[in-house]
Amino acid sequence: MQDLVSITVDGQTWQVPKGTLLWEACKSQGIDIPIFCYHTKLGPVGACRTCLVEIEGMSKGPTTACSTPVADGMVVSTRSPVVAKAQRGIFDFLLANHPLDCPICDRGGECPLQDQSFAYGPGTSRYIEPKRHHVKPIVLGPTIALDRERCVLCWRCVRFTAEIAEDKSIILLDRGEHTVVGTFQDEPYVSNFSGNVVELCPVGALTSRKQRFNFRPWELQNRPSVCPHCAFGCNLNVSIRKNDEVIRFLSRDNPEVDDSWLCDRGRYDYEFVNSPDRVTAPMLRRGDAFVQVPWDEAFQFIAGRLATVVEESGPDTVVGVASPRLTNEDLFVFKRFMNAVVGSVQVDHFPRPQLELAGDGETALETLNSLNASISSLDEARTIVLLGADPSLREPVMELRLRKAVNKHGARLVVINSDEIPLTGKAEARLTYPAGRLADMAHSLLSSLTGGDAPEDVGNVVATYLTEGPVAIVYDDRLDGVTDKNGALVAIGDLAAALGERVSVGVLPLLDAANSLGARDLGVLPLGGWGGSAVDRLLGPDSQVRAAFVLGANLARDIPAPETDRRLEQLDLLVVNELFLTETARLADVVLPAASFAEKLGTFTNSERRIQMVRNIVPTPGVARADWEILVDLSQYTDRPLDYALPQQVWEDIRRDVPVYSSISYDTIPPQGVRPASLQRA
Amino acid sequence: MDRILFKHVDVPDINRLPVYVENGGYSGLRKALTEMQPEEVTQVVMDSGLAGRGGAAFPTGRKWSFIPKGVLPTYLAVNADESEPGAFKDRELMERNPHQLLEGVAISAYAVRAEKAFIYIRGEFLYIEEILNAAVAEAYAGGYLGTNLFGTATSIDIVIHRGAGAYICGEESAMLDSLEGYRGFPRLKPPFPAVKGAYGQPTVINNVETLANVSHIVNNGAEWFRSFGTEKSPGTKICSVSGPVNRPGNYEVNMGTPFRTLLEDMAGGLVEGKKLKAYIPGGASAPMLPGTEANMEIPLSYEGYAAAGSAFGSASFIIIPDDACIIRAQLRISEFFAHESCGKCIPCREGTPWLAKTVRRIENGEGRQEDLPLLLDICDNILGRAFCPLGDFATSNIVASIKYFYDEYEQHILQRGCPYHSAASAVA
After folding, report:
1. pTM of the predicted model, to two decimals?
2. Residue B37, exposed/middle/buried by CB under 10 A (0-12, 13-18, 19+)?
């Protein structure tokens, strides 16, 4: 229980945790205090002076609410004549040199300077001197343009690069009224996280080069969603225009996951949704070309060919491969379609780690799965071990989370990698191993932990960092470049298990795609489980496969070989559900137009097994439909039709089928998603 | 005249260690380290009533007592960033008797259990850095700095660091930023430097002149020190006098001495043909006072100038003669503050250039009647609203000059130009 103190603001008295900043305390009570420099996710700086309030007993006059912690019995006025005068004065200063080019400014309409000037500032300016001018815009880097005239020098971008991303790229140059935001020696601002500074900017000074002048904020509506680009599962607001155009992605703060940050890949890769190149109608191959056909004709064609293949060669000559970027609902219906409608057990998801696991490998995976930690548990870890994992590359926002764990919560970061990674410099200890030899390293760690032989540096790391919990282990599930993938996985699993007997341990995997863990939980795996591979079965040299359903997986691109194309071309039936005419789709007999993540209701399971919803935000192009809907419709052309009309019906079947999801219903998934009850810590 | 700090200033080669030691130098350090506990040193300084000579006059011993016990290392940082327009006292203290400062620094470091002291010198003081470096080298060689001083367990190192030249770096927390290699910006307080200062450690920051007093207090005792000056302002003060006087320079006075003595007896009065129109007692940040008879008799002390509505500050007296234009003088001051504003906070960053531009317009004959209330209102919007005192400092002389010389402003506005510089009022 936190200590509470009692404060009185504008006549209201309530209790807040001791140490809360006065500005935060007022905000939580709905009391508005204007602010520019302060931001909840950044430390106080006290530079803008707009949050001046009067505190009884403070002889020095108004003080800044952003930097003053509450004290018991504090009596505050945010509306007194002295405060009102101070606020007017500050806004008078703020607008003195501001260009007031609101009609052409990207921020106009959602601009804190506009809103707060209107609420707290003087109606007119007394400033008659020539305004400051700067060359504009300045190209700050590949993604960001800077208008120095609009800048109010709130330090948010500076503090983001100093405190959060820690690249210290954006700095203040020159002095006094000549102070400007810039970079050292005009070097370009290049960062995985550059877009965050645009969102942090409280005026139109930092704009996205990709988006500037493309829209007016009042044309837009924001709809909640989840980033489809990796398994970290950052929350999004998708801004749309006229109900059918995706204009931008904004962050949507989920303190448990993204902490309000997005990476640039997540933020800027959205144009595919509205791309004119989307597949908009079913297409049948006629010779070398595709022709658009009605759904009915496409389904009749598929059902006919499928029946022939199954009758002649049996259902196991039909395989299905789905992308882990699809929703749980898509994947579940896909699996059911293959199993129950086609009668084939040859389903798989791609890409995924290709492992030939013996019994102990399955056990290792189960161990790692059972130790699945929450992302926010990184905040409580005494030690965080990156074991052959580079989050900056795979799940970039995790990098910011790790930096915060070290900076704010005192976690000790141990980087064990064959290469330098961006977080190497943040590590308190590091171990390296020859490229590919992750298994040996994991064995050494295990050996040292259990009292066996190990090199001295490994022993030191184990003794110093792994003897005190909680320990969080982040490993890379894809095991790219690792020579003995199975061995490495088994060793990591054994290490985690052995650690778990000594200290509290949590494991976070880096996964292939937004819903890789969902695909696993749903068991979208072939006969033989992890050891099998429907893709190998499809593309292998002695392949007996005659028909394939490929949903969103681009085999021809990701397994580049002449053999791949030849095998796919030779199939009697290749059905591809896609957004685009991909390398794989071009080889298909039938291409079916699929809905993107922004065009369907469904769920993703992120790498901490948080179930989050994506929503129907814009209409699909043409007659495109969600993958699961396409398969349900197609099943009506067979003698074993599926009976789903709504995604929640699919989800109810998922709950029955997948025990770990049984506690979650659509109605109970909050805006920030939810982890299964069985995983939530007390 | 009684002198403490300038007592030996005219001894030839006093800047050399042997001469300094011959004249009793480093006996205070020896006494402190071999006969006194750190707390006793703090106590005697507290008892002496020595107050910060940088301008704020905060009691020195009390400042030291804020250092938390047992949080090591602690640091002593010496503010030698003397940048206040009108101030040039620290410069002379360092130039002419560097060991007196080093001895004070070493004793003070001992008092706060700091094994390392930094002397942060103004960027422009390159030649003083050289003097100090030579003195520090001599002190190390002579066994007055370094490890196990006088056979005790006490070690004291002094690091000389020269800034890059910015007024704001005289603000103590900005000085620490600059010392650490960052751009000098004032820091958010709390935490105060005594708790979290240089490199995140407890740090005492004192002015050069303050610390130069310490060896004398340790040697002679608190009562002796209190025999100088007034009850509220014990000791002496070095006053810098600049402007059209016969003998501009630094003068050490007993606190409480009337200003008239400083101006007329010590500085030799104004040069022939000029009369006193106004003077600024404490550097550009202290409000100017008109040259009235009453203002001639103000006792040179913190309380004396506070009572007169100004500030003794760093005791930097800028003499403004009757043939000088007050608006032009004000313009120099306002442009100084606009130029030196660090840019961190909005009121100072936007307000100080606005003041300067408006004063310039008035001096150039483009003033409007509404500019005077505007100037005062801009000051009102800066004063107490800015992040650090620099903003407040920028307002004091605007307010004072309009208060005392309203007619002169009005004359500029009505006559559309400067009566003192009729040649176009072209302020270069």
Report:
1. 0.94
2. exposed
Q: Which two three-digit tokens encode residue A567? A: 């095998």
Which residues neighbour A501 within 8 Å (Cβ) at sequence distance 6 or greater? none
Tell me, yes or no, if B197 comes closer than 8 A to chain A by beta carbon: no
The residue ranges of every structural domain in chain A are 4-95, 112-208, 283-352+516-679, 359-510
Q: Does B401 touch chain A (CB under 8 A)?
A: no
Among the partner residues A93, A94, A177, nearest to B343 by beta-carbon distance: A177
A441 contacts chain B (CB < 8 A)? no
- Residue B319 bridge partners (DSSP): B279
Question: What's the mean pLDDT in B359-370?
Answer: 96
How confident is the model over B51-61, as pLDDT tens digits?
999 999 999 99
> Who contacts A349 (Cβ-Cβ below 8 Å, separation ≥6)?
A321, A322, A323, A324, A331, A516, A519, A524, A525, A553
Best CATH choice for the domain A112-208 from the list 3.30.70.20, 3.90.1280.10, 1.10.8.80, 3.40.50.11440: 3.30.70.20
Query: How remote is the C-alpha of A174 from its chain's centroid?
Result: 37
- The SS3 of residue B10 is coil
In chain B, what is the straight-line distance between the N-terminal and C-terminal CA atoms, in Å? 42
- Residue B346 has its nearest CB partner, among A48, A88, A172, at A48
User: What pLDDT does residue B425 have?
Assistant: 44
- The pLDDT tens digits of the residues spanning A178-236 come to 999 999 999 999 999 999 999 999 999 999 999 999 999 999 999 999 999 999 999 99
Question: Cβ of B387 and A129 within 8 Å?
Answer: no
Q: Do B352 and A175 touch (CB under 8 A)?
A: no
| Sign of the Cα pseudo-torsion (B83, B86, B90, B95, in order) | positive
What domains lie within chain B, and their CATH numbers? 17-226 (3.40.50.11540), 236-321 (3.10.20.600), 326-414 (1.20.1440.230)
Helix axes A328-336, A647-657, angle to 10 degrees: 70
Cβ within 8 Å, pair B352-A93: no
C-beta atoms of B346 and A127 within 8 A: no
Q: What's the pLDDT score for residue B423? A: 54
What's the pLDDT at A113?
A: 96
The domain A4-95 is placed in CATH, from the list 3.50.50.60, 3.40.640.10, 3.40.50.2000, 3.10.20.740, at 3.10.20.740
Contact A172 B183 (CB under 8 A): yes
pLDDT of residue B112: 97
A89 close to B (CB below 8 A):
yes
List own/partner pairs for B255-258 with CB under 8 A and 24 or more apart: B255/B228, B255/B229, B255/B230, B255/B299, B255/B300, B255/B301, B256/B229, B256/B230, B256/B299, B256/B300, B256/B301, B256/B304, B257/B299, B257/B300, B258/B296, B258/B297, B258/B298, B258/B299, B258/B300
From B342, B357, B374, residue closest to A176, measured CB to CB: B342
pLDDT in tens, A361-374: 778 888 898 899 99
Judged by DSSP in three states, A222 sits in strand
Give the mean model confidence (pLDDT) for residues B364-370: 95
* CATH of the domain spanning A359-510: 3.40.228.10
Interface mutation target, options A92, A155, A156, chain B, most CBs of B under 10 Å = A92
Kindly tell me if the per-residue pLDDT of B424 is higher than 60: no
Q: What are phi and psi of B46, to 5 degrees?
A: -65, -45
Q: What is the fold of A283-352+516-679?
A: Rossmann fold (3.40.50)
Provide, as residue numbers in chain A, all residues whose Cβ is less than 8 Å from the Cβ of B188. Answer: 44-46, 67
Residues of chain A below pLDDT 50: 682
